[in-house]
Design goal:
Length: 204
């Protein structure tokens, strides 16, 4: 989501400032930046209403490019890899891992998955419990045998399981549209408030 101003917007602010039109950059950069931080808060809340994630984890994938006197424009972006499934309330159970991705849904079971640490972080992993390429277990090999007992030639890759990407949910019209409308409203409110404040402080 980007905020780029037209010359007509700049002219309107200068007109309202009158003799203090030189302060138009202060008005516009401050208003844009407040609108962007509000938009991030609103987007985080809306995404949090859909995904079973903590606000801090959602906000982690957002970045704000602030407006400044050299560039009176700004943007709010969401980027990043799909969120690890472990973040969605993952719990180890007898048959695998239980997770809840959407707030509107019940918990679901990911069979044969497990939670393990890699470095300082935990993730949900899944490994096929069949022989690669055959769909069968090695002769004489029990299906519940420890992984280390399965001959290397029969092993298959481990896969880290993930959920949706924050940027995909943010880009959806159900989130981006109302957030953009609210950001425009906040921007205009801040422009009015900042102009009023500057005129008040320099009156008389």
């Amino acid at each position: 989501m980007s905020v780029e101003l037209k010359q007509t917007d700049v002219a309107a602010v200068k007109s309202l400032l009158g003799d203090l039109k030189g302060k138009y950059k202060t008005v516009m950069t401050t208003s844009i930046n407040k609108a962007l931080t509000t938009a991030r808060t609103q987007a985080t809340a809306r995404i949090g209403n859909e995904l079973n994630l903590k606000a801090a984890r959602i906000k982690q994938d957002f970045s704000i490019k602030k407006a400044n006197f050299g560039d009176i424009s700004g943007s709010l972006k969401a980027t990043g890899e799909p969120v690890g499934l472990v973040q969605f309330g993952a719990k180890s159970v007898k048959k695998g891992v239980s997770v809840k991705v959407l707030r509107s849904s019940s918990r679901s079971l990911v069979k044969h998955a497990y939670i393990a640490s890699r470095g300082s972080k935990e993730h949900v992993y899944w490994r096929k419990n069949r022989v690669a390429g055959t769909g069968k277990w090695p002769v004489g090999q029990k299906t519940r045998a420890p992984w280390k007992l399965i001959p290397a030639r029969y092993r298959v890759p481990v896969e880290r399981l993930t959920g949706p990407r924050i940027e995909d949910i943010f880009a959806s019209s159900r989130v981006l549209d109302p957030v953009s409308i609210q950001a425009q409203h906040v921007y205009l409110q801040n422009v009015d408030a900042k102009i009023t404040d500057i005129l008040r402080r320099h009156s008389g």
